[in-house]
């Protein structure tokens, strides 16, 4: 057996030894499905700021989902009511004070979080 085949075989065997490695990319394709479906809607952003805003919102939603937040709307409502509390006189926010607003934080309200299975 040549070196290339042995290398390929070692990559294929990882599925047998590590249960966390998926054998296909179905989960990845499923996670980007909503983004691809909405692509036509976002195609007509007429400004870079509009496209940036859309990307920011999509990123927050997907990060919330990945961190078991069931209701991204409730999470948005929560962070949008908390952010103004941290503005200084110029309207700037110190990022170091925002850890409790991250979707993986334990301080996120239960109305946003998915119930965990027992």
Would you spell out the secondary-structure blueprint of this structure?
Layout lengths: L2 H15 L8 H12 L1 H4 L5 H19 L5 H11 L36
Structural features, described:
With 118 residues, the chain is an all-alpha fold. Helices cover 52% and strands 0% of the residues. The chain has helices at residues 3-17, 26-37, 39-42, 48-66, 72-82. The N and C termini lie far apart (48 Å). 5% of the residues are buried. The mean pLDDT is 79.
Short description, anyone?
The chain is mostly helical. It has helices at residues 3-17, 26-37, 39-42, 48-66, 72-82.
Protein traits:
5 helices, 52% helix
- The total beta strand count reads 0
Unreliable runs, pLDDT <50, ≥5 residues? none
N→C terminal distance? 48 Å
Beta content: under 5%
- Helical percent range? 40-55%
> Number of helix segments?
5
| Largest sheet entry | none
Q: What is the H/E string? A: HHHHH
Overall 3D shape? extended
Mean pLDDT, to the nearest integer, reads 79
Rg measurement, Å: 21 Å
- Assign the structural class, choosing from mainly alpha, mainly beta, alpha/beta, alpha+beta, or little secondary structure: mainly alpha
């Amino acid at each position: 057996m040549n070196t290339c085949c042995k290398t390929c075989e070692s990559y294929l065997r990882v599925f047998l030894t590590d249960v966390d490695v998926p054998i296909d990319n179905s989960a990845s394709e499923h996670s980007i499905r909503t983004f691809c479906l909405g692509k036509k809607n976002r195609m007509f952003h007429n400004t870079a700021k509009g496209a940036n805003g859309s990307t920011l919102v999509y990123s927050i939603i997907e990060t919330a989902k990945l961190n078991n937040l069931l209701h991204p709307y409730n999470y948005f409502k929560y962070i949008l009511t908390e952010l103004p509390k941290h503005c200084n006189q110029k309207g700037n926010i110190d990022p170091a004070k925002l850890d409790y607003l991250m979707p993986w934080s334990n301080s996120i309200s239960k109305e946003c979080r998915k119930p965990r299975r027992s």
